[in-house]
Amino acid sequence: MTGRHTFHEKLDNLHSDLLKMGSLVEQAIHLSVKSLVEHDSVLAEQVIENDDEIDALNLKIEKDCFGLIALQQPMASDLRRIGTVLKIVTDLERMADNAVTISKATLRLKGQAYVKQLIDIPRMATLTEAMVRDALDCYIHSDTEKAYQIAKNDDAVDKLYKEIHNELVEIMQKDSSTVFQATQFLFVAHSLERIGDHATNLAEWVIYFVTGKLEELND
């Protein structure tokens, strides 16, 4: 087996590990919000526990990337691909951290009846989950057109976040006994907003990988 063949095999493994990590992160986001909506503390604890697997995979991918750079002396196009993977897994790891934040909010609210029905937070979660899924799909297919669309979709997430924020502030102002719960919901909404930002970052790195140009898609 030639050194070049081995190199491309390792690149393919890197690609597979990234997609595995992306799938785990998608699941973490979905289950964290599900745990909140359904008052499911067991599910929340599962999300927190599973974060160790995501962190371990992130470290493995980073180690493999640096190993390829140091030992294989990749050509410019391959080096850009490796650099893109490094950036993407960093954003994925931070998304997973936000899913953990949401799950911790679920645990803090264990046993409490919610002061309001959760409607907009699940809507926001649906939007952000779709952004993450689309961003990974962009990476798989090197689809820059869809990457630009992800940035536009982030505007809808930001708009919904502002609406949720304003509603929760109003609720707290009217009734001080709601402050603790409303604050937890604010943490959740902010975490979802950050996930949307990280998904947009993924789209930026796909554009960089395909075109070699760095573009700022977040305003």
How would you explain this protein's 3D organization?
This protein has 219 residues and is mostly helical. The protein has a single domain, classed as Methane Monooxygenase Hydroxylase, Chain G, domain 1 (Up-down Bundle). The protein has six helices and no strands. The chain has helices at 3-37, 41-72, 76-108, 120-141, 144-174, 179-211. The longest helix has 35 residues, at 3-37. The model has no long low-confidence stretch (mean pLDDT 92).
Poorly predicted regions: none
Mean pLDDT: 92
CATH architecture: Up-down Bundle
Number of helices: 6
The CATH homologous superfamily corresponds to: Phosphate transport system protein phou homolog 2, domain 2
Which geometry do the CA atoms define?
elongated
CATH fold description: Methane Monooxygenase Hydroxylase, Chain G, domain 1
The percentage helix is: over 70%
Q: What is the name of the CATH class?
A: Mainly Alpha
What separation lies between the terminal Cα atoms? 48 Å
- Oligomeric description of these chains: single chain
Give Rg in angstroms.
Answer: 19 Å
In total, how many domains does the architecture comprise? Answer: 1
Which structural category do the helix and sheet elements fall into?
Answer: mainly alpha
- Can you summarize the main beta sheet? none
How would you spell out the order of helices and strands? HHHHHH
